[in-house]
């Protein structure tokens, strides 16, 4: 996964991701990469950290092209012990590899 992609998402301080440990982020990033690279639109991938109980579901909503790059809209639902939240992010594949969050 591209370095910094999760860090950009972590900026949402009032969302479950703000309470995630580094291990939670590793589970999240692995699921996000799997969703972006291998899952069909509408196909969920779930993750859970058994140590913290934090979890989530990531679903590619649609795949499209933007400026010659493959892009995907993801629906992300994350759960921490104290909160749950849903968001949608657009990611575009980068020429050097990895994915970057982009504005819709």
Record keyword descriptors for this entry:
104 residues, alpha+beta, five-stranded antiparallel beta sheet, 5 strands, 21% helix, elongated, disordered N terminus
Please characterize this protein's 3D structure:
The chain is of the alpha+beta class and 104 residues long. It is 21% helix and 39% strand. A five-stranded antiparallel sheet has the order 1-2-3-4-5, covered by helices on one side. The longest helix is centred in the N-terminal third of the chain and has 17 residues, at 22-38. The chain is elongated, with a radius of gyration of 13 Å. Mean pLDDT is 87; it is low at 1-5.
Low-confidence stretches: 1-5
Structural class by secondary-structure content: alpha+beta
| Count of β-strands | 5
Q: Please report which band the strand proportion falls in: under 5%, 5-15%, 15-25%, 25-35%, 35-45% or over 45%.
A: 35-45%
Give the overall silhouette. elongated
Give me the strand/helix succession: HHEEEEE
Number of helices: 2
Helix content: 10-25%
Most strands sheet? 5 strands, antiparallel
Q: How are the strands ordered across the major sheet?
A: 1-2-3-4-5
Alpha carbon gap, first and last residue: 21 Å
Average pLDDT, all residues: 87
Radius of gyration: 13 Å
List the helices and strands and how they pair.
Elements: H1 5-9, H2 22-38, E1 45-48, E2 55-66, E3 69-79, E4 84-93, E5 99-102
Antiparallel strand pairs: 1-2, 2-3, 3-4, 4-5
